[in-house]
Amino acid sequence: MSDDAVSANSKSAVSPETWRKIAFVWASLAAKPISKPDEVIEEFWQRVSDVLDFDTAFLVLAHHSELDRRAERLGYIEGWVPAEVFYAPDSYDPAHAAAIEEFRRERMPHDTWIQHNIAAAGEHRTFIRQDVLGDEPWESCSTGWLMEQMDVRDRMISVFALDDSVEVHLGFDRRGPTSFAPIDRNTVHALNKGLGPFWARLAMSFGLYKHQQSLTPRQRETLLYLLDGYSEAEIAELMNLTQGSAHQYVVAVFRSLNVNSRAELMAKWMGDYGIEVPEP
């Protein structure tokens, strides 16, 4: 279900207590340092488990490029490639790798569930089984086949579209008899809609934005430290450089991003990617 469809009733459906939990997650994650993404993602899973009951979960940073030949070669759809994939604790079983690979290469391009997701690219969206399949069972689509291989009984997807080339896909699974209901969808949609600043910082930490593609790996690292507020002396220590070399990296970042100071860099960041958090 699209952002407009969910937002029309999400506020009335989510309880005040749940809104308080959601607001706490927003506040906890919004200003986390992006130079240590693994630590931040670990905390994300801890926070989101206070809002939603699930058994396994995954997070995909998806990148779109019509020029990326990996998309067609690896079987991905409409130019979308999973740039980074993260699993919640105890969510990934290596025994499922073969089934995931078969699904990706042979079943995914024609799957109803996947097609529904791709068709809404560029929109914030959250959906559960009945939003896509109606009264049809999971077995009616290839995603249902994959879930059976993974001993999963129900799934929910929530997507935050950062821009036309970067999206964050959250997947939540349940193994027990309780399926995801509309209240779960509305809760997760409300939660995800307020995580824009967090997702933007995370995407930047992996160099997914178009303006970062002109930077070298060391320049991208410098950019992250600048956005986290480190001084040039601290950046030099963190990157094992002389302060003079660190300064040269800072200058190169400024030049590449067409800014003249740290203040202009932060203003550009807030202007281009400082996504507002909605009021609960």
From TrEMBL:
GO terms for biological process: regulation of DNA-templated transcription. It comes from the Bacteria. SUPFAM superfamilies: C-terminal effector domain of the bipartite response regulators (SSF46894). Gene3D superfamilies: Winged helix-like DNA-binding domain superfamily/Winged helix DNA-binding domain. Residues 212-269 form the HTH luxR-type domain. One of its GO terms (molecular function) is DNA binding. This is Helix-turn-helix transcriptional regulator.
